[in-house]
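User: I'm writing a tutorial on reading structure tokens. Could you give me a worked example: one chain, its sequence, then its tokens, then a sentence or two explaining what the tokens reveal?
Assistant: Sure. Here is the example chain.
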Amino acid sequence: MPIVLAVHGGAWNIPDAAVEAHREGVREALRAGWAALSEGGSALDAVEIAVRVLEEDPTFDAGVGSRLNRERKVELDASIMCGRELNAGAVAAVQRVRHPISLARKVMEETHHVMLCGQGASQFADEIGMKRCRTRDLLVGRELERYERVMAGDRRPVQEEFEKPAPMGTVGAIAMDGRGNLAAATSTGGIQDKMPGRVGDTPIPGSGTFADNKLGAASCTGHGEKIMRVVLAKAAVDRLAGDVHPSTAGMGALSTMRRVRGKGGLILLDRYGRVSARFNTPRMARGVADEAKGLRVGVDRGALRR
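And here are its predicted structure tokens:
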């Protein structure tokens, strides 16, 4: 079986000055995940590793660099899914966790639940001995500045989030390993000016993340409220039936966002190792690694480059 890894760093209007940081962030995540995958690691390991790298990069809206909610707190969402048995784990609105994707995997592997949220997720992190962090360890200056603007009455950062240049970037990864197993993972700090306890598509299997060995795997990014309403990740994977190419399936699934006037994108991988990225925003940070072409990344529309 071919081995393949794809990652994304969010679909939005990435400003020119931030393009290179997005390229390099995606590239580093690919390198880390690919190293594990090419050495015989599982697809599940590869997507977790890749997303952890992106959670450490303040360029993106996940882990370090995440949005502040209305109460000046950082609440994080993440999910991971294994396509072999459709196992999934997720955390929502969890605080003071540097790598929510790893906590989501622990939910999948060490509990009989799929999702833990809020205080329950935080308590579980403590029970398993996961190292906690401070809110300020996750906070970067641009997000504090945007928070203060919104609290002062400036609605532009909220209204222009997916159209005008504004820091944004849910992260995700999908992979196929040498045994033909598929996996997907997604992590986010959420949207601008979110209410405390708000949960988007990211931690919901089928909406932000989905993997099924019989068809494919997907990770989504964009306006979570809209993505949830069309169940975008599963809609994309289901469209792979009949050996439809991921490019066609991804575009078809993304077209359903028109009904809800949604903005976003997704990466999509089928059971043959074919991969595609589709988005209806001006730009999307993404990359692919495989044995035939190596590592390639891109932000604008068009072919990926080494």
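What the tokens reveal: The mean pLDDT is 92. The CA atoms of residues 2 and 292 lie 9 Å apart.
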